[in-house]
Design brief:
about 50 residues; mainly alpha; about 55% helix; elongated
Length: about 50
Amino acid sequence: MRPSRRLTSALALLIVLLVGGGIAFLATTDLSPPLKTLEKVLPDERFPR
């Protein structure tokens, strides 16, 4: 095997492992957004009559 072909194969394998690990991480992690009540007072001047 030529050195350049071995390097290309190693990089391709590394990319596949990183993508697979990222998918596994996202599939097993609970990524729920933080829940917080937001109340904002809007001035009456912003709403024309």
